[in-house]
Structures are given as C-alpha cells and as structure tokens.
Amino acid sequence: MPHDYVISARKIEKGNFVAEPGPVRYLRVPYNASAALPAYATAGAGDLGLWIDEVIGLADGDENPNSISLRGDILVFVHGYNNSPETILWRQRRLNEDLKAEGWRGVVIGFDWPCEEKPLNYLEDRKDAAAVALELVRSCVKRIMKAQNHGCETNIHLIGHSTGAYVIMEAFAQAEKDGELFKSPWRIGQVAFIGADVAAHALSSGDDWAAPMFRRIMRLTNYTNPYDSALGISNAKRLGTAPRVGRAGAPLDPDPKVADVDCGPYFSSLNPANAIFAKDANFTHSWHVGDRVFARDLAMTLEGAIDRRAISTRRIEGGRLTLCNEPRPPYMHAWNIRGVTGGSSPPSS
C-alpha cells in the first residue's frame, strides 16, 4: 500500500496541525512519512471521491476467506489522548501490519482528533473529544450511510483506544440527533475498545448514552486489563466513583452485544523489555498495538466467523472470557466460510 489513509479533524495553524478541533480533511500519507501533515490532504471534492474509492478498492480487492463479510473490511482506528502525531501514525501502521500478519485482509485507516501531548490537558482533551465526535459522524458515518444506500457491501469496523472509545460512543449519540442518519438503516460491523476510558456502567443494558451505538453495531468487544495504571489515574480523578471499563471490565448487567475479554492474566506474563509498543507510552495502557496475540484475537473478532465464546485465543476462567496465546484453528482456511448456506448435496457414489 503506497499510502496510509487518515481522516483528520485538527485545526491548521502556520501550515501545521495543532491540538484544536478544525475542519475534517482526508489525507494520503506517504509510506515513508513519520506523521500526517496538512500537505497530504485531498485537494477537492473530486479528489475526495477518489480517496474514498481507493480505500474501498483496497479493502474489496483482497477478500478474506475467513471473514463473513460479503466484500472487504475497513477498520477505523480512533486514538486516545496524550499522543504525538508520530505515535498515532505508528500505531495505525503497526495495527495494520499485525492484523495482516495474523490473516486479516482489511485496511486500517486513522481518525485523528486533536489531543494534547501533556497529561495535565486530559480534561481539555475530553472536551475536544466530545466536540470532534460530531465530525466523526459527518466525515465517516454519513459517508458510510450513503455508500450503503448505494449498495456498498464493504464492512466498516471501529476500534477506540483510551479516550477514542469515548469519541466512538459520543459519535453514535450525536448521530441519533441527526434526522437523516436516524431514519437511515446504516450499520457498523464490529466495535472494539482497548484501554477504554469510559465508565463501566456505560455498557450496562439499557444505558441511554450507549443505546444508539448498540442499535447500530453487530458486537462490542471490550479488551480489559486490571493492571492498567493510566485508567487507575483516570478513576482517581473521579474520586473512585466511576471505574473505567478498560480496567474494571463490563458491568454485571452488560448489553447483550458486549463481549468482555479479560487480558489481565496474559498481560501479566509479558516482559516490557521484549514487547513492541509506542515509544514513551505507558505499557500497561498501550501494550495492545504491537502484540501479535491481541492482533490474532482482534482479527478473528473482525472476521465474525467464530462465536465470541469459541475464538481460539480465549478461554473461560471463572465465567469470564480470558485472552490466551493460542493459534487459529488449524483448518479454518478450508471451512468454506462464505460458501452456499442451507446445507449441501451428499457426495456422489
């Protein structure tokens, strides 16, 4: 792939992106660039159409025999707070590489919203995240809706890291307020949260804020880690009144579409010295991108061919799904997953 594809919701000042919300732009980032820059933005409406066609073409041009998707797959990566532009692009690229190495054949694109690189700006970043969620609706959801209305069968998925999970949930809530979107039958395939900085009770069955998301998606997989120190700090800022779902896990009454995967036992076996993760990142909060076991589990989740309780990188411990280092089913490639349904004719004698 000669470019990385990024949707930016950052303001431009003096020719550079800054940590303030701005008009949405669609970027083709050269493979050898270290960060997404305004210079890589599409030039106009015609070029934007080509950008969208290129992304869909890349996804549909390499269909995955392990996936239930009728065509290809696109995964939109929504980053969290306190990330540099270089780290954001590194994570997008690494996630794309790891998923492909584990057999997934889709395309990862980035949704880059403005966040500061200083932890003290955390609350300001949350405010920006709420504001920019509307841009995610306008730039992604509405275009998905229009494509689906015109017969596009490419499957769209979302993954949110840290505050990125908040951006995703707020985007669905904002979409509910848009008359055109509310009336249209658009949908999203899989949603995944990693290190999600969202209150655990938000994933409860019947929660008003989460309800618009659950009405539009196939499944939400929440990867939780009880050792996540960044989310421990986030909870402390709230005086312990709202445990974060990426650390505490889903509540006792989760929405039926929630699959909670406990990564704690697997994570506790990892040696950071041998791990691949973003430079200067909090390992407990950011270990996922760069970890092949996580990528393998996510790949099978996005493909949707295996029930959430039977994915081979999970086992059930104490009634909970727990991440474990196991390979794919050895003969999955020969299952004819997208073959004709409804039974088959008996073999001829």
Description:
The chain has helices at 45-60, 85-101, 122-149, 163-176, 179-183, 211-216, 229-237, 245-248, 264-267, 283-286, 292-303; strands spanning 3-13, 16-30, 73-78, 107-112, 155-161, 188-194, 217-224, 258-262, 314-317, 320-323. Helix 2 (85-101) packs across helix 11. The chain has 349 residues and is α/β, with parallel strands linked by helices.
Question: How are the SSEs ordered, and which strands pair?
Answer:
Elements: E1 3-13, E2 16-30, H1 45-60, E3 73-78, H2 85-101, E4 107-112, H3 122-149, E5 155-161, H4 163-176, H5 179-183, E6 188-194, H6 211-216, E7 217-224, H7 229-237, H8 245-248, E8 258-262, H9 264-267, H10 283-286, H11 292-303, E9 314-317, E10 320-323
Parallel strand pairs: 1-4, 3-4, 3-5, 5-6, 6-7, 7-8, 8-10
Antiparallel strand pairs: 1-2, 9-10
Helix pairs in contact: 2-11, 3-4
